[in-house]
Write a structure and sequence with these properties.
By secondary structure, this protein is α+β, with helices and mostly antiparallel strands. It has 16 helices and 31 strands. The strands form five sheets. Strands 11, 12, 13, 14, 15, 16, 17, 21, 22, 23, 26, 27, 28 and 29 form a 14-stranded mixed beta sheet that branches. The chain has a seven-stranded mixed beta sheet with strand order 1-6-7-8-10-9-5, sandwiched between helices. The protein has a six-stranded mixed beta sheet with strand order 2-3-4-19-20-18. Helix 2 packs antiparallel against helix 5 and helix 10 packs antiparallel against helix 12. The radius of gyration is 25 Å and the shape is globular. InterPro entries: DUF4914. Pfam families: DUF4914. This is DUF4914 family protein.
Length: 632
């Protein structure tokens, strides 16, 4: 071990822990790590057990399949990320719960216990680059060897790299995995502790579900580094859209969970006769369909963690992005039977290398099928089945950095009618200046029965009844270890500097009285791509009735076909009207005001203060444009 890790400069306590360990394995190939994940017998079943105060406890099971391993957890609770698992152990600025405040003691003794416990285990140590192989930061993960599937998941997400390829380095982050501490120290709860300095971000994972640590924990590391260096890792997907006329447009889509990030790079769904159902009226049950011939070709650029690294930027007014991951942690709850997504199913069933599946029912030495979801204890399908799939196996994926032409922001909207007014009044496509784009990202509202797993009961109850909760700055706030105002300032700087980017809002689920699902998002993408580099004219826009929505289009024509104007201006729908619209606008505006007040501190960028003050006094769209000119 000492010879293998000589090139890594480690903190003294970590070096001592590894030196005291009887068996440290640094895999030289992914195949070697994959074999470790199958256990000492190589499968076909392997139980990941730990001693908890003299009692063996099974934390996970691993089943060997033809196309990969199926990892499952005995407890329903461990099959999804606990949204309240982050604890911050250091004294650097943070708005997140500090370890000492939650547990009434300092973390240092538990940190020492963790390193001592690891020193008495057989370990697997893997290097990785947080943020991807090109722009990532050299890092290290230390896991018990019987949880090698966790290390495999991490390197599949971040990309396989060896110590020789990295060369001598000092880790920018270290991830430690100590599963039994969940029982011995934290009453069975998932806990992920972040311990930061200016040069090292340590993540202590006291659970074996990789969501809050191998996935979002690395996101936390990148946000922390970006806060130090002045750049952002966006919680966004992006796609290159090529029209039938060969014009290319890159669209980057943000929004709270359920806001349509994954859907942005999905094909428009058609009915059996080839037409597209834009919406169905929830009062009259009247469908509204449009006919669209050839649609644009889609090439995904990023899936979830979008790297906006400073070294990518050229300072020409266009944001340049790259994927922060080499593999995607894809949720497959939407796959319930064969044939629903042929290309993706083929990638899962006939992969180039064996994959890692989570919460999928696996039978030894059989093909692991992405629609065979594990059942929770209530007999229902687990809502969080996942597969880690390499980017290289995603159809038409773009591997080079991309210039963003349009940044869209998606919001789940409830139905709004005269009888039941709500905030579901966003039109199909709204063009906004950077100032309003920033306000929407500060709030990142989650609404209309958001399907995301792992919510607190209070948030779940509120969303189930059409309410809103704020996911916070950039919708990446749940993963940030810093402060909201620092994140807000960075995001404002990014938006203002990208002054050749068009900012657009688009709803999903409902537009006024119409149930639209994600059709509005898909058709907005199609429209914007067909406009391509063509500039919008001010004469083509009309002020939205609610200033928070900026402008809407006077008309939208796609492939020669006009979209019904009431989808652009919901107040003109016969089942909505101005009175219900205004009631919904008040709900939305009041929510914004209540959430924005917390940002008005002395640390806020002066421009940000001016923007928020416009909202607080119910200012007009002209006031927002005066602060940040509208790019058309």
């Amino acid at each position: 071990m000492s010879r293998t890790l000589d090139s890594v400069t480690l903190p003294a306590a970590v070096r001592a822990s590894l030196d005291a360990c009887a068996n440290v394995i640094v895999p030289s190939t992914r195949d070697e790590l994959y074999r470790l994940a199958l256990g000492p017998e190589g499968g076909p079943r392997f139980s990941v057990d730990y001693d908890v105060n003299g009692t063996p406890v099974t934390e996970a099971t691993v089943v060997r399949g033809k196309n990969g391993i199926a990892v499952n957890y005995p407890e329903d609770y461990m099959r999804r990320r606990d949204p309240d698992c982050m604890r911050v152990a250091d004294d650097l600025p943070t708005d997140k719960p500090r370890y000492r405040d939650v547990f009434g003691a300092e973390f240092a003794p538990v940190k020492a216990e963790t390193l001592d416990w690891l020193s008495r285990q057989d370990l697997v140590v893997v290097p990785f680059k947080a943020g991807g192989l090109t722009h990532g930061y050299p890092s290290l993960a230390i896991c018990p060897v019987n949880s090698a599937f966790f290390a495999l998941t991490l390197v599949d997400l971040q990309g396989w790299v060896t110590l020789d390829e990295i060369g001598p380095f000092t880790p920018r982050s270290i991830l430690y995995v100590a599963p039994p501490f969940r029982h011995t120290h934290f009453d069975g709860r998932q806990v992920v502790v972040h311990d930061r300095t200016d040069t090292l971000h340590e993540v202590f994972a006291y659970n074996l579900y990789p969501g809050p640590s191998a996935k979002k924990g690395v996101f936390s590391v990148l946000l922390d580094i970006g806060e130090h260096e002045g750049w952002v890792t966006a919680h966004a997907s992006s796609v290159r859209v090529t029209t039938p006329y060969e014009n290319e447009t890159v669209v980057m889509h943000e929004g709270a969970s359920g806001g349509g990030k994954s859907e942005m790079y999905q094909e428009i769904r058609r009915q059996e006769d080839g037409r597209i159902l834009l919406g169905t009226n929830v009062v009259s049950n009247e469908p509204y369909v449009i006919t669209l011939g050839e649609t644009s070709a889609l090439a995904p650029v990023t899936d979830d963690m979008t790297l906006c690294h400073k070294d990518l930027q050229r300072g020409d007014g266009k944001l340049v992005v790259a994927d922060a991951e080499d593999g995607w942690f894809v949720r497959v709850d939407n796959l319930t039977e064969y044939g629903q997504d042929i290309a993706f199913e083929r990638a899962c069933i006939h992969p180039e290398q064996p994959l890692v599946f989570f919460n999928i029912d696996g039978t030894p030495d059989s093909t692991v099928l992405p629609w065979e979801h594990t059942l929770d204890s209530n007999g229902k399908r687990c809502p969080n089945p996942r597969v880690v799939i390499p980017r290289s196996q995603i159809r038409h994926v773009v591997s080079e950095p991309a210039d963003v032409d349009v940044r869209t922001f998606g919001v789940r909207m409830p139905a709004c009618t005269r009888a039941n007014p709500s905030y579901g009044i966003m039109g199909m496509t709204h063009v906004v200046p950077a100032s309003l784009a920033w306000l929407w990202r500060l709030i990142a509202p989650r609404g209309d029965k958001n399907p995301s797993i792992g919510e607190s009961k209070a948030a779940t109850d509120k969303l189930a009844h059409g309410g809103m909760v704020a996911e916070g700055v950039g919708s990446y706030w749940p993963f940030s270890t810093g402060t909201k105002v620092a994140a807000a300032n960075l995001l404002l700087q990014q938006l203002v500097e990208a002054n050749r980017t068009r900012y657009v809002l688009t709803p999903n689920q409902h537009i006024g009285a119409y149930k639209v699902g994600f059709s509005a998002e898909w058709l907005t993408r199609e429209y914007l791509a067909r406009r391509g580099g063509g500039r919008l004219r001010q004469s083509e826009l009309v002020e939205a009735r609610c200033p928070l929505f900026g402008y809407t289009l006077k008309e939208m024509k796609i492939d020669g076909q006009l979209v019904r104007p009431t989808f652009l201006r919901p107040e003109q729908q016969s089942q909505v009207g101005e009175e219900a619209y205004d009631a919904g606008a008040k709900i939305l505006t009041d929510f914004f005001k209540s959430e924005l007040a917390q940002f008005l501190t002395d640390d806020l960028d002066p421009l940000g203060r001016k923007i928020i003050e416009v909202c607080m006094r119910d200012g007009s769209i002209d006031e927002y444009v005066d602060l940040t000119p509208l790019y058309l």
